[in-house]
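Quick one, tokens below:
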């Protein structure tokens, strides 16, 4: 886990991969500064995905770096009030959808399980919990 307010965040992120940058990055915030960081932290010819939507971002670094951008929008904002009502009605039943929890250092195990299709939602926690195996 890295502090996103650290002024040396980009060098820290790049140092995790020998200064090259990440193969793939995902930004879920729709905050232009975070989207810019995702672009800058991605290696040459890597892939960037924006899940959040809104605001404006300059994509100047994408072309010379040969980056691929994937935009993902998976729900309709107009449906949000109905979704919140449904969540309020069914409450704890949603917890049954989460079948497995993993600490972040077991991310490969989590992905391997997800790929089997033999689970519901898998949750990753950045910090280990006492009740996890």
């Amino acid at each position: 886990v890295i502090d996103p307010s650290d002024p040396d965040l980009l060098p820290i992120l790049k140092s995790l991969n020998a200064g090259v940058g990440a193969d793939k990055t995902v930004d879920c915030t729709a905050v232009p500064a975070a989207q810019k960081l995702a672009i800058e932290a991605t290696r040459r010819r890597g892939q960037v995905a924006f899940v959040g939507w809104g605001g404006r971002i300059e994509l100047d670094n994408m072309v010379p770096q040969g980056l691929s951008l994937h935009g993902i929008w998976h729900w309709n904002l107009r449906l949000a009030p109905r979704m919140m009502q449904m969540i309020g009605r069914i409450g704890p039943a949603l917890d049954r959808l989460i079948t497995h929890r993993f600490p972040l250092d077991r991310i490969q195990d989590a992905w391997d399980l997800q790929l089997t299709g033999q689970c519901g939602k898998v949750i990753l926690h950045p910090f280990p919990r006492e009740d996890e195996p």
